[in-house]
């Protein structure tokens, strides 16, 4: 039937999920509250939405969902095939969040080229590409 988790892991799993939810909420608060410090002040509502979605989708996809996909083999009851299917599904949703998060950065007035002047953007593109290669194979 597979590995069954110890009841002593339940509080730890609960704490990990609460911490993940707190991280997502804090990123959303950070993106909305400090929009004038990392975004140009003349953003319209659509540009603001895209700018807030980028960090939020990256955190939800690559940290929370891929982390949950890693843990699914330890806490989810069921057969090995079922666990692998849930793992694949979570990785796919994480990849979709990452691709959509990158897409949101290209929707601003600056265009695509303006988003590739930093190491952050190039490393992000490499990470998403490697993640996609891992999920596809």
UniProtKB/TrEMBL annotation:
Subcellular location: Membrane
Topology of the protein relative to the lipid bilayer: Multi-pass membrane protein
Listed PROSITE patterns: CYTOCHROME_B561
Keywords, sorted A to Z: Electron transport, Heme, Iron, Membrane, Metal-binding, Transmembrane, Transmembrane helix, Transport
Top-level taxon: Eukaryota
GO cellular component: membrane
Signal peptide: none
Transmembrane segments: 12-33, 53-76, 88-106, 112-133
MF term (GO), any: oxidoreductase activity
Main location: membrane
Protein name: Cytochrome b-561
């Amino acid at each position: 039937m597979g590995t069954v988790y110890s009841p002593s892991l339940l509080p730890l799993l609960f704490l990990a999920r609460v911490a993940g939810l707190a991280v997502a909420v804090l990123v959303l608060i950070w993106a909305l509250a400090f929009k004038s410090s990392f975004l140009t002040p003349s953003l319209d509502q659509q540009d603001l939405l895209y700018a807030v979605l980028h960090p939020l989708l990256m955190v939800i996809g690559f940290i929370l969902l891929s982390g949950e996909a890693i843990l699914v083999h330890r806490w989810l009851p069921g057969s090995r095939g079922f666990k692998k299917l849930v793992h694949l599904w979570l990785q796919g949703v994480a990849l979709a969040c990452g691709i959509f998060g990158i897409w949101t950065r290209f929707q601003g007035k600056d265009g695509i080229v303006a988003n590739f002047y930093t190491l952050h953007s190039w490393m992000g593109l490499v990470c998403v590409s490697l993640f996609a290669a891992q999920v596809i194979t």
